[in-house]
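Friendly challenge for the regulars: who can give me the structure tokens for this chain first? No prize, just bragging rights.
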Amino acid sequence: MTLRPAQRPGFRVPRRIVTGHDAEGVSVVMSDGPVPVTRELPDDGVAFHEVWVTSSTPARIGVGPEDPTAGSITVPPPTHGTRIRLNEFLPGHLDERGLQSPVHRTESIDYGIVIEGEITLILDDSEVTAHAGDIVVQRGTDHAWANRGDGLARVVFVLVGGEFDHDVLEVLPADVRDRLVRHGPRDEPAAREEAS
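First reply, four minutes later:
Bragging rights claimed.
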């Protein structure tokens, strides 16, 4: 039996249940099934499962069965929106620096909720390992991730579009906004990754 990439042992595509309203205003389930957009990076041992995205806050709530997750995966949320995804990190996929992701920065507030295993957050001058039940609040800093444990790490990320305050812009490099991640995972030009 041939398995689709998202069904390979190790990664588990989450179920997503989306509610809405019918023509009479009754609360209903609009969809119930696997998240519609998954991207795996086999060399990195990472999977991205997109759950939902909003393009603005306050978020628009419509009647129809629209699915704003359809399309390509991008790392940051929309400028004034939100994004929720589940990331899975397999063990044993570290580069020569001990990282599993490129060092990157987004202009957002990201809540990382560890639901399984453990994941190490690497910052400029330190690192910390978060375990199941721990929550990381990522505030627009350069960072990378690494699963240095023995089992799968699963982290729910809720990303909220943000804007750097003038005080943080005074201490960051002048070109910080030029170096933000704006595309999908590993889609940035090679020069961008080298600069990070």
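Residues 11 and 88 are 7 Å apart (CA to CA). The helical segments are 166-171, 190-195. Your move, everyone else.
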